[in-house]
Amino acid sequence: MDNLTNLKAIWHSAKTDNLPTSAQMLQLIHKFKSQRLRKKWTVIIVASLLTLLMIFTMFYYQPKMITTRIGQVLITVGCAWLAFTNVKSISRFYHLNDCSNAEFLAFIEQTRQNQIYFYKITQVIIMSLSSVGLLLYFYESASASLSGLIITYSLSAAYLAFIWLVVRPRTFRKNAEKLNTVRAHLNKISQQLKDDEA
Asked: What is the sign, positive or negative, of the torsion defined by CA atoms of 60, 62, 68, 73?
C-alpha cells in the first residue's frame, strides 16, 4: 500500500508545465511535414518544368555547334536528377504520421544526415552539371563577338559564383538551423521525461 502512495506522490509531483501536450506534438510534426513536403513539391515541379523546357528546346532549336547540344543535355540531366532525388525522398515524409517522440527524433536525425549528404555530394554533382551545361549552352550565341563573349561569361561567372559561394551555403545553414531547433526541442522534451521518471 505504501508503494502505491509513494507512486501517486511521485506521479503528482512530476513537473510537466514545460512539456507540450500530445496535440502540440502532433501539430509540430504536422507543421514540419507540411513545410518539407511543400518545399519538395516546389522543387520537383520547377525542376520538371525546366527539364521539359530544355527537352522542348532541344527538339525545336537545332544548334550549329556541338557545345550547345552538350550544354542542353547537361542542364537536362541536372534538372531531371534534382527532380528524381526529391521524388525519391518525398515518400519518407508521407509515411510520417503517428509516431512517438523517439521515432520523430530518429526521423529528424535521418533527415539531417540526408541533408548533409545532399549538400556535400548530390547537390555538388547536380550544380556542376548545370553550371558546365549553362556555360556550354551560352557559347554559341556569345561567340559571335569578342565583347559578347566577355560580357556573357563575366555575367555567368558572377552569377554562378554567387550561387555556389553565397546562396548554397546560406540555404544549407538556414535549413540545418531549423532542423537543429526541432531536434533540440525534442531532446529537451525527452530529457524532461527521463528526469521525471528518475
From this structure: positive
- Could you read off the pLDDT of 172-192 as tens digits, one per residue? 999 888 888 877 777 776 666
CB 85 within 8 A of CB 118: yes
Q: Rounded to two decimals, what is the model's pTM? A: 0.76
Instruction: Give the chain's end-to-end CA distance (angstroms, integer).
Output: 21
3-state helix, strand, coil in the chain (%, to 5): 90, 0, 10
Query: Dihedral of CA 137/138/141/146: which sign?
Result: negative
The answer for residues whose C-beta is within 8 angstroms of residue 87's C-beta and 6 or more apart is 44
- Comparing CA positions, the residue from 92, 99, 94, 95 lying closest to residue 25 is 99
